[in-house]
Design a protein that fits this description.
Length: 390
């Protein structure tokens, strides 16, 4: 019996699809140059692959055909040698259309296996977000801003080859660095890309995360209906109308909270979230009207509180708000919980104002695709510089 290797690539649907495909395909083709057969396939990535929804590619490689066949007899691997995460906000967990509840980013990472993340954050900032495991695993990091582009544009900032170079270091039995570089030269005919792979190989940093360290939260889950509880035909229960919300000051009902899907939460689908400055809101209702996910709870005083169970982080509310810095999208990594901003504002208006000021002061670019002409030319050299400097 030969050796089977499994790598999963966890990515944001649409924005990182080509990136994930390049990595997965690159793993299989590089391993093949060393005579190992393999296959690469996407999961949860076909329609509806909604913008930002987490999805996966898998690369399965074996030392011989029979072992590969045996490995492929499963729908997908139960555990993987390496989990690649190309957006650090996915450290909080992921919820796709295709499975139920929140899945920790390291769920399939085997005991002693590696979670490889591209991030500018240090490991100690990411570990508290990542769900703890019963067995130790390794956390490997390569420095970089998450690489987003679009369905039709590919941002060639070398994230793909940097991941391949890092995998050569983390899983040397899969393929060598020399093989990765040969594959890159064959595929892209680009010596600079081969150098980026080499630098990632040299500079990938690894720490061991002991058992029980990390986010202790029990991931959101719910009971699936039993076969005998299912209704005839295709029946999708509708969402009932919403109702008033409790005013914490008077305990009277006021405002309005739309009812929401009780099982599909959107905590992990967003990479940014809106921060609302209630003191300068002019109650124009535009955010509430335009939000595609009906996220806004209308508060008893007629303000609009973006509910973090429902927000997918699209940024429409920021775009339509007519008041400068009343709604500001901020990188999801900056937040620990999902509590109501309005309730925080109600409790301590001065403290909330300071929090808003501080939170929106540091907001590196997080746009998913491209919002203006020339953004590709602006961002790609910065990423290439990170690849060069490590
Ligand atoms: S970012 Fe704003 S508009 Fe988009 S889903 Fe969230 S609250 Fe709604
Ligand atoms: S769009 Fe801005 S000003 Fe208008 S209600 Fe929403 S937060 Fe307030």
């Amino acid at each position: 019996m030969g050796r089977l290797f499994a790598v999963e690539i966890v990515y944001r649907g649409i924005f990182q699809k080509t990136l994930a495909k390049n990595i997965s395909r690159g793993i299989v083709l590089a391993a093949n140059m060393e005579g190992k057969p393999g296959t690469s396939f996407g999961r949860y990535g076909d329609s509806p692959e909604r913008n930002g929804i987490p999805a996966k590619y898998f690369a399965i490689v074996a030392t011989d055909d029979l072992t590969l066949e045996e490995g492929m007899a499963k729908y997908e691997p139960k555990e993987v040698d390496v989990t690649v995460c190309v957006d650090d906000t996915l450290c909080k967990g992921l919820e796709s259309w295709a499975w139920y509840g929140l899945q920790p980013i390291n769920k399939l990472t085997m005991p002693g296996g590696t979670l490889l993340i591209t991030s500018k954050e240090p490991a100690e900032n990411l570990i508290p977000m990542i769900h703890q495991k019963h067995e130790p695993y390794k956390l490997a990091m390569i420095k970089g801003t998450p690489s987003f582009s679009g369905l039709w544009v590919y941002k060639d900032d070398h994230t793909d080859v940097r991941i391949l170079g890092a995998i050569a270091k983390l899983l040397p039995d899969l393929f060598s660095l020399e093989t990765v570089k040969n594959f890159i030269l064959h595929e892209w005919k680009d010596t600079v890309k081969a150098q980026s792979a080499q630098r990632a190989y040299e500079r990938v940093s690894t720490v061991t995360v002991p058992a029980g360290k990390g986010n202790p939260e029990k991931p959101f889950a719910f009971e699936l209906p039993k076969w005998h509880e299912m209704r005839d035909g295709v029946a999708i229960p509708c969402i009932p109308p919403g109702k008033g919300i409790q005013d914490p000051a008077t305990h009277a009902a006021g405002g309005f909270r739309p009812a929401r899907n009780p099982t599909f939460k959107k905590w992990s689908t967003r990479t940014m979230r809106p921060v609302v400055d209630f003191d300068i809101c002019i109650k124009c209702t535009l955010c509430w009207l335009q939000c595609p996910d009906s996220c806004f709870d209308v508060t008893p005083e007629g303000l609009y509180d973006a509910n973090m169970e429902a927000c997918c982080g699209c940024g429409v509310c920021e775009a339509v708000c007519p008041v400068k810095e009343c709604v500001t999208m901020v990188n999801e990594v900056s937040f620990k919980g999902n509590d109501s901003q309005w309730e925080a504002w109600r409790k301590d208006k001065g403290g909330y104002k300071n929090w808003v000021k501080e939170t929106i002061s540091n907001r590196p670019e997080r746009s998913h695709g491209y919002r203006y002409r020339g953004q590709y030319e602006e961002q790609t050299p910065e990423m290439l510089e990170i690849a060069r400097q490590g």
